[in-house]
Structures are given as structure tokens and as C-alpha cells.
């Protein structure tokens, strides 16, 4: 253990001026737990943790925050914080600082001189500057998809390891600001090797109970599938959010009195400060369990002038500890979250076990942070598509080889999109809780990233297809815009499938002809259909395209590869499908049948024809009237964070829908128009086992001065008995129950908002016979308020700010939509027997996240071009998902394989499955493989974590059985395994 410098020594160093380490001396590497200051047994040790919370965008953009630009919006400049902190750390070796957001640290580090970099490295090596969390950002937990979170953590942690080696490896996960905590995040953190996790926000009722029961520190068992302790994570709830105790904020942004310790001057206040501090420490100790407590000494963008904080903290420590001579039992010290964690671990206690999550989060009776589950639905969708695009880009960078980065179409890269995606995971980014100009900045970064990737993808496909014809991307197919297909008489479509199994995918292209021939890579003619573009679509694209029709066909793409379809206009082929303006009775394919009520035009039932099950199903659109804050119970309005309807009864958009119906062999659809601002297409493709509901909502009218929160509600004959189910970050499923929390007795004060949960990728309701699963295309909020019912919030437009700092009402418009944003998306409905439901919704969910990338070339494919390609020797087994394939270094690629089923979820697939690493790829020779932790910053065999014992007293389980051989990898339910492969292109 490192010897502690007594606080007085610290002070004398200060008086001697700048402390510096001797030149030329090999720096001592005593980082990590060894560098913690000693504590005093039998005293109450108060761990003072100097820290800053630097949002990677919120009221200002990430770059504005870095430079300290636009201080008129918020005074904050991260570059100055790091400058100032390093300077102050050098003045006293006792001082400590933690840094969290690698997006900022990376920006700063690159601008430092080699001398400054050496100095900082020494601070890190000595544990005086310590990284915690260490991802690119502190991700949101409700609205992020696990795949994007793993990527952003990997990027930040890799930078730290590359720059500082093992002393740069964070030991602790630190999510002090996110608004509720997801179980899947805890599971990921455990698998990333963190020893513990601290956060600041927890439901006020939950906190009250935990304080009394002394359960603010607990063991979170974050997976129901992974064998303990794989997903066990020690979790601590910080005493005061992430702020210092009241009266002890010494930042330049605070007004608390400094410590005035010269007895000869006026206002000497040392006794007063120490007495107040001891009182706070002693009362805090009553609600925690050990002789150690933690205080977060810092807050948002603090430490820009770190001298203020450190000068007062030096004195605080000195004077608090001087009282020990008079019998005080309190010992204050500079510390870090990992040093505090180490003491909790040494205490050798058993800890309360938690198996559910921390959603939803309320900070008061009418203040549920459940609005942001849906806020900014267009940004949420753009982020989700961008994740898919990034995976495609990463894969093609590997498969195409170096030419993909510098080829016939110029220089492309995946790095720009990686960074854009990483900042988009921040808890004020994809969450939708930033100011409008900042939301625009996140979207702009994603667009710039995708542009760079498009060059890479073009180069890679050129290499793989042996054709350097110009490749055109149509990013606006969702609103039926693609200049090439709108005007060309002959073009080809390359369909790249990033999944490790074949996919059939409905391609839908804007065209102006009425009849086309589509042929596949073998030249065989493919069933296709031309249908009229709907009036809603034409209104939505607002002069950005002019197609009157859409061409629809099913593309069948091979695993991890592409196929090519050729499309040509026919002179005198059959006409476009008839659009009948009449009440529909039913649409049906060989798997599903959906019926409609002819009187209302609404869905009335859904049948699975394979399993012979039918449920009653009515679906309609409603809106909650957002509270404006003028309310007898509380003045809380609905806003970017908070959902607070004025009434628990939503308003119907319309009792009936005007309908049109199209019934062809390729597809069937019922187009429903509910109002000028709500329409929907209920769609069934020939070979689809899911019913598609494509909704279009907006601009939400507000001439009535009412903020609107639009939902769609599915009312079914399923007997849900108050239960429903939602996913956690797109992975494991959690059970939800109306007006209920698994770990405390809930006093429900918001019957709607208090029953909303994040629906990241899916939600379902079920009884013994039927399970209806809804797969979403982005994160949304949802709930089950009535028996048999499931509602999903689609869009929000609000007139008031919800007083959580963003200081803008959530009222989105844009140049193209000055009258308010219109959002389009889709829900996929799957009806199954409960025991087989996962077999359907797991692959459906992955397909929705990793959609094929379509690229177009004008004219016929070049002669000699390769029209079909797969990088795999064979499709992976149904249980295995290829989560990551990305270039790491020259000759090395990162591979993540995931078992996509939970244990007991599927009769067929919930069992271990083995794959052979050398038999995966047809185009890559795998020469070597080393296993890593989930975030790829530690070799698996070097990964050791603190062991924590739950109060249940159970013994640690037997070691997991090994793999059959060095090349054969066994995946158990919900396992993700990460490998660095040494490869050569075949
Ligand atoms: C921790 O506690 C257990 C059970 O109370 C005891 O057997 C063990 O020796 C303790 N370990 C240490 C390091 O004190
Ligand atoms: C981390 O960095 C160290 C030092 O550069 C290196 O030896 C180690 O292999 C890196 N770890 C990983 C997992 O890349
Ligand atoms: Zn924050």
C-alpha cells in the first residue's frame, strides 16, 4: 500500500510553490488501487472525490463545450478544465482528480506538447489523475442500443489503453447523470471488467427506502441468463446526486463561503466549516453501511479554475483531521471512486441483491422522466439507422481490404461515423434532451460520418464485385425519394446484408413507370409489383422527389454479403396495382391474416395461420394533452425529459379511418388516414411473418395551445393481468407490472407516466395462449395501462420547458418542415405461442437494427461484374448473431459473436452453440485469435474483478466449462464473446 502523505506535508508543499518531479527519473507506476491514500481504521473515512461532469453536448454542442465557445448560453470550457486541473494536481501529490469523458480528453490530449503529455502520463501512472468510466461519453441508458454502447465504450477505452496502458484502464463505471438505469448497462459494465458502478439519480421513493434500509449500495445481478458472477456488478448510489454537500461548493460557479483560516483577518470561519462538515459526514454515515463514505466534490463543467476547489479542499482536509486531536472520529482524504470501492470491498460484507432495473425514474410525485423515452423521434431513428450503417461500413472495411479506405472513389473511412455515433450515445444526445441546435449538430455529424462511409462502401463493393461503376446511395427511400430510380429506365440494385444469415427484404423504390422487370443475380425474373405512391408520402417528401409510383419486390441477400438485382422499365407490361377506395375486410398471406372493421376502417383481429391462433386486435391513435404546469397537484409541465399528461384519458385522433386497399400477390396493404396529421399503412408482404404498421405522424397541430403526446394503442383480447414486458437496451427482457415496482411498495401518483418504460427494440404482452410482440424501429416509451392493451408513444410536441435545464420547449421544426416535424416509422407485430415467440422476435429485432444497405448503379451491371458475394462459409447457426466485425489494426480485426437468446426463452435455441473461428469466413484466413473482455481493452485471461457476496449467502458457482478447442468457441444464452483475430484476405 502506498504511504500516505500527512495533510500538513501537502500544505507545506503548497507553500513551497510548484511541486515538480525530478527530471530523468523513471516514473513510479503505482496507479490503480495501490495508489489510494491510506485510510484510518475505526474512524469514519470521508472520501472526497474531485470531479467534473462534462456533457458531450447538451445546451451547447460538444465542440462548443470543449472550447468554451458560446459562454452566453452556459459558461463551460472543457479545455480550460483540463489545463487547470493538471496544473493544480502538480502542486500537491495528495490531490486527486477523475476524468470521465474520453471524447473531451482525446480532443485535449492531441493538442498538448510532448512535455505536457509526459507530465500527464506521470500523473496517470501515479494514480493522481484517474480515468473512470472512460467511454467516449457517458451514455444514456434508456434509449441506447447495446451494440452502439459497446462500440462507444470500446472506442474510449481503446484510446485510454493505447495512450496510457493499464494505468489508463478505468476500474469503475460512473453514470452520475443518466435518468434511470438499465439492467443491460450493468451487465455490459460487468463484462467490460469494471469492479463497481456508481450513479447519482434514483427514484425518490426508492431512495427513501434504501436510505432507511441502508441499501444504497447493493449487488446488481444484471442478467437472468449469464452464470453469476459474470453479470454481477457492485452498485453504489451516491449521496447527493453528483454534487458536493450543501455549503461546500468551491467552484468559481458557486457562492459558498471559502475557508477563511487566518485568525488575524476578519471572518475566520474554520470552526464553523469543520463543524458543519462533521455534521454532514455523520448524518451521511447513518444511511450507509461501512466506515467509509463518499462525497462528490464537483459538478457540471466545474474546475475551470481548479485552484479554487483545491485550495479549499486542502484546507478542509487539514482542519477536519486536526480535530481528531480533540477526539473527532472523522478522517477526510482525497480519493477516487475506485479507492472508495476498494474500502467497501475490504469491508467484506454481504450486499442486498437486485435483479430488476432502475426505470422509470421520478424525482417527485408528478415528475416522471419518461418523456425522453420518445423525445425527438426522428433523431432517435436516425441514430438507430446510423448504427446499422456503421456496422455495414465496419464489415466492408474488413472484407474489402485496404482498398476500401483508398480506392476508385477516393478516401473513405469508418472513423468519422464511429465518432459521430459515439457522441450520439451521450445522455443528452439520443435521449432527445438537448437544445435544438445541439440536436442538429448530432445529426450533422452522423450525416458527415455516413458520407465518409459511403465512399468506403463504394470502394469495398467495387473491389468485391469487380466493378467500379458509380454507386449511388438513396438515403430518403423512406419518403420515396431516389433520383436515379425515379428517372432511370434500367438500373441495378446491390443489396448488402450485414447479418450472418440470409435475409429476405422488401425493396421499395420510387419510380415513374408503371411496369418493370426485375431479375436476380442469376438472371431469373423476380415477382414485383408497381403501386401508386400514397398521397401522404407525396405530401411528406415536399418537392424532394417526383415519383408517382413505387416498385416493390423481395430481395433475398446472402449472409454477410450482397446480391444484385437488375431492374428495367417495360414498355407494355401490366399496369400498376389498383388502389381501391373501399372498406377493407382482410389482408392475408400464407402466414398471417389481419381483419378490419368495415365500419371504422380499423384493424379488428390478427391471426397466425401456421399456429392457428387468433386474437382480437383494435389499433388506433390517441394523444395525451401535455400538462402546461397549471395544475392543482403540481406545477410540473411535460417537457423533453418529463411526461406528464393533464388527464389519464387520451383523446382519440379519430374514431374512424378513411381507407384504401391494395391487394396483390407481392404485397397487400391498407392505407388508413385518421386526420391530416396521422396516417398509417398496414402492410403484409408475401413471405412476411410480421404485420407491418408504418405510421406517419405530424406536424402535430397546436393552434389550440395544447401540447400533444401521440400514442398508438393496441387493444387485444390477450389477458395480460397487469403485466407486460420490455427489452433492456435491445437485449434481455424485463417483466413490468402496472403500478408496481419489484423492490419497493410504490405509491403511484402518475397513473400513465408512472407506468411508462423504455421500449428499446421490443415490447410484448401475453397470456397462456398468445403473445403479441411489437418490434420497434427506434427507442420509444410504452406502457400497458389496461388489460390486454399495449401503447407506444410515437411523437411529442410541447409548448413548455420542463425545468430540468434545457430551457426550451420540445417543439421541433426544420427548414423543410417549418410547420412542425413529421415523423414516419414502423412497428412490426408478431403473434406467436408464448413458448415460441422468441424464435420469431429475436431474429426480427436484429433484422430491424441491421437492415440491408441498398446501393444503385445506372444501366445494366458491367459485364464480368460479380453479382453475388458472401464472406461466410455458411450462415451462422440461428442462435448466433455477428455483433461486430471491424478493422482493428493492420492484419487484425475485432470480432464479437453473440448468443441472441435468453436461457429458457426458446425450446430450440436456448442452448449452448459452438462455432469454429477458422470455419466462419470464406474470404478471410484466420491465423490467430485472442479473447478480450467485452470492451476489448483487456485480454480475457488477465481480467480479474472484485468478488462480492450477495446477502443470499450463495457460494460462487463452479467455473464455466471451457471451449472444446482453441478454435471452437461455445456461446451460452446471452453471451457475447470478443476476439481479436489475426487475418489475411484470401
Ligand atoms: C470475510 O468474511 C468471511 C465470512 O464472514 C470470512 O470467512 C472471511 O475470512 C473474511 N475475509 C476477510 C479477508 O476478512
Ligand atoms: C493495452 O496497452 C498495453 C500497453 O501498450 C498493451 O501491451 C496491451 O496489449 C493493450 N491491451 C489491449 C487489450 O489491447
Ligand atoms: Zn449530464
Structure description:
There is one protein chain. By secondary structure, this protein is α+β, with helices and mostly antiparallel strands. Helix 1 packs across helix 10 and helix 13 (415-424) runs antiparallel to helix 14. Strands 23, 24, 25, 26, 27, 32, 35, 38 and 39 form a nine-stranded antiparallel sheet that branches. A nine-stranded antiparallel sheet has the order 28-29-30-31-40-37-36-33-34. The protein starts with 6 loop residues before the first helix and ends with a strand. 56% of the residues are buried. The site of one 2-acetamido-2-deoxy-beta-D-glucopyranose (NAG) has 6 residues, from loops. The site of zinc ion has 4 residues, from loops.
- Bound heterogens, unique: 2-acetamido-2-deoxy-beta-D-glucopyranose, zinc ion
Class from helix and strand fractions: alpha+beta
- Let me know the average pLDDT: 95
The gyration radius over C-alpha positions equals 29 Å
How many separate domains make up the residues?
4
CATH-defined topology of the largest domain: 7-stranded beta/alpha barrel
Number of helices: 17
Per CATH, the superfamily of the largest domain is Glycoside hydrolase 38, N terminal domain
Q: What would a concise description of this structure say?
A:
This protein is α+β, with helices and mostly antiparallel strands and 986 residues long.
Defining traits:
986 residues; 7-stranded beta/alpha barrel; binds zinc ion; binds 2-acetamido-2-deoxy-beta-D-glucopyranose; Immunoglobulin-like
